[in-house]
Specification:
With 353 residues, the protein is an alpha+beta fold. It has 2 domains: 145 residues, no CATH class; 203 residues, no CATH class. The protein is built from 7 helices and 12 strands. The strands form 2 sheets. It has a 7-stranded mixed sheet, with helices on one face. Strands 6, 9, 10, 11 and 12 form a 5-stranded antiparallel sheet that branches. A hairpin with a 5-residue loop joins strand 3 and strand 4. Helix 2 crosses helix 4 and helix 3 packs antiparallel against helix 4.
Length: 353
């Protein structure tokens, strides 16, 4: 009975402390969740004693891993969407913590038959700590490479006069390009200083301005290295589109992506990541021949070397910060409208002008 109790309290205490330190769960969730996990570990006390110090940790680690997987599917089938998303975010670390706690308790229980309690406890703690630090370090390295934030900078061409720049909506935050981004763009396209700030000019002479900057943050690694993707969204898109966009392999990489019709994507910037990709969806709003950008949706998908363990991160609808519009080539334009230069507005009714 004493061995059963020691196994229980060792497992429970370790799970609570390790969960709190690694952030896999709130202290309350770790406190109550550890009660049932420790009960399973204690039920295996006789198995630990019979197998001995050599194999007991392996049995304990296996039992801890299976427990986490069972809880994962329980939340998936019976839990809420938010709870399941949180379990996805912390699955790898959760397995590491439980495998370490179970293995440490198993070794301590096996050593109790040969040594005094202080030595057995020290051996269990040493193994559990090592099993927590090493996998947690590996998970941290994978998160560093895969799950860092992604900065989106959207460059859009607006229909304005040659000597003018786009007028941003009242209260809109003006997106700015960093010096590194400007230097990166100058190596690939023409970049000039215009009346609307920094302008990017493509091969066809169309001018682009930074419409917005948005950061997609994976909750498990909010302070990690930041990838930056510069989107060039050209005019001429008269229908809703969805693009599968790669990102740079380097977690601090910078890339230029030019989107086109029929899901066309042109990537520039270096090696492409096999673990991270973006899905960009554009919604347009046709209104009497004028097609305006309605919203832009971006979703980040990540795949770790151990499988698809990460939940995707999605933006809300991104609205335009300054007027942009597209003319539908299938709709004829009246002669008086051709003679009169039009200053398009985002979401406005062109018939009212």
């Amino acid at each position: 009975m004493n061995t059963y109790a020691r196994t229980y309290w060792f497992t429970w205490a370790f799970l609570v402390i390790a969960a709190a330190l690694t952030g896999v769960a709130s202290l309350q969730a770790a406190f109550f969740g550890g009660i049932f996990a420790a009960l399973l570990s204690a039920l295996l006390s006789k198995v630990y004693e019979r197998t001995g110090p050599r194999y007991a940790p392996l049995i304990g680690a296996t039992a801890g891993t299976l427990w986490v997987i069972a809880m994962f599917f329980r939340v998936r089938w019976f839990g809420s969407a938010d709870d399941f998303q949180m379990v996805q975010w912390t699955l790898g670390t959760d397995i590491s913590v439980h495998a370490a706690g179970f293995a440490g308790a198993a070794l301590m229980t096996a050593l109790l038959a040969r040594y005094e309690f202080p030595k057995a406890l020290g051996g269990g703690l040493l193994l559990a700590a090592a099993m927590t630090v090493i996998p947690y370090g590996v998970i941290g390295w994978i998160d560093h490479r895969v799950a860092g934030p992604v900065d989106l900078v959207v460059l859009v061409s607006a229909e304005v006069a040659v000597d003018e720049g786009p007028v941003r909506r009242s209260g809109a935050v003006q997106a700015e390009l960093t010096s590194a981004e400007v230097l990166f763009l100058k190596e690939r396209v023409l970049v000039v200083d215009g009346p609307g700030g920094v302008e990017v000019v493509d091969e066809q002479g169309r001018r682009y301005w930074p419409l917005l900057r948005r950061r997609l943050v994976y909750p498990g690694n909010p302070g990690g290295p930041v990838r930056t993707v510069l989107f060039m969204l050209p005019p001429g898109l008269v229908a809703a589109e969805t693009w599968s966009v790669p990102v740079h392999q380097d977690p601090k990489g910078l890339a230029l992506v030019t989107l086109g019709g029929r899901n066309d994507v042109k990537f520039s910037g270096g090696p492409i990541s096999q673990a991270v990709r973006l899905e960009v969806s554009l919604a347009v709003k046709p209104n009497e021949g004028v097609v305006t950008y309605q919203s832009l949706q971006v979703e980040t998908f990540r795949k770790s070397p151990l499988g698809d363990l990460y939940a995707s991160v999605r933006t809300q609808g991104i609205a335009a910060a300054f007027p942009t519009s597209l003319i539908d080539p299938k709709t004829p334009v009246k002669s008086e409208e051709k003679a009169k230069p039009r200053r398009p507005s985002f979401g406005a009714d062109p018939a009212a002008k």
